[in-house]
Amino acid sequence: MSTIRHLRSALLRALRQTVGPLIGVCVVGYFAYHTVHGDRGLVALTHLQNEVAEAQATLTQVRGEREELERRANLLRPDHLDPDLLEERARAVLNYSHPDELIILLPRRPATH
Q1: Contact indicator for 39, 33 with CB cutoff of 8 Å
Q2: Is 103 contained in some domain?
Q3: Across residues 86-91, what is the average pLDDT?
C-alpha cells in the first residue's frame, strides 16, 4: 500500500511541476501568435504600410494634376490672359478648326475614383 501512495504522490508532484510551465508555454505561444498574425500584428502592420505607400503615390499624382490644373486656370484669369490657351479652349469648346489643320484624336484617359 505504501508503494501505491508513494507512486501516487510522485505522480501528483510530477503533474504539479509540469502543469505550470505547460500553461506558461501556452500563454507565451498565444501572445507570440497574435503578435505576428493578430489584428494589430506584424502582418497587419506590413499590410498597412503598403496601403500607406499606395496612398502616398496616389497623393503625389493627384497633387501634380491639381498643380497643372491650377497653372492652366491661372493662365485664363482676366488680369493675365494667355491668348494661346484662350484660343485652345475656345476651339475645344466650340469644336472648331481651320481647314488646313491636322487633327489628331487621342484616346481618353479612364476616370479614376
Answers
A1: no
A2: no
A3: 80
